[in-house]
Fold:
Amino acid sequence: MKKKNNSTLSQGPSVRLFKDDLVEVLDILKKHCMNVEIADNNYTYESLEELEDRQGAEPKSIDLIGHSPYISLTVSRWKCSLFGASNEAAAIPFTQIKSLLDSRKRKVVHALFNFPIIIIIWVLGFFMMTALLKGRVQGEAASLYFSIYLMLVMGALYFTFMVKVGALSQVVLKKPHERQPFHKRKRDDILLLVTTNVVTFILTLVAAYFLFRYGIK
Structure:
């Protein structure tokens, strides 16, 4: 009798990986696996340089795959997943790669789509539901109020979940000393932060408008 091997899957976090990080992952795979493969959704490549020539410095997706034991890392704009066979041979490289991913987590993204956003939604939802329950908002205004609340809740839950499985991940085929100036490197984080705050401010104004117009006494 032989015990059946299952697989291990780790989803997330949302990461930013540079070329040195990818080289480190490849070194881990080469040390523990018989064969190593670099690929994307359509092609396989001999090297990271060949991938860069095809997709540019910021590829939309990348797969780093080791065989015997099987371990695969997939990073794209919508996910970051680490998959491996559940056996002793795969345990060490799986743990090492997972540790690397955790250290490259995009802290700003995880901070935005986490408890602070949920708390804001709960607070807004509390005031809106209080107004509805007290009968101060009725008819079309009540429907609009409830729709705003539902959109906030569903949007926050969706993006929070997507970030947990690695959405908004990024691969940069450059070394640290080759990185662009701060404002260019951080433009997506800055844009995300500004957009989130603007949207939150607008939604807060909408909620405040109905609160002051119909009153909560």
About this structure: The beta strands are 7-11, 16-18, 35-39, 44-45, 61-67, 71-76, 80-85, 170-172. The CA atoms of residues 18 and 172 lie 5 Å apart.
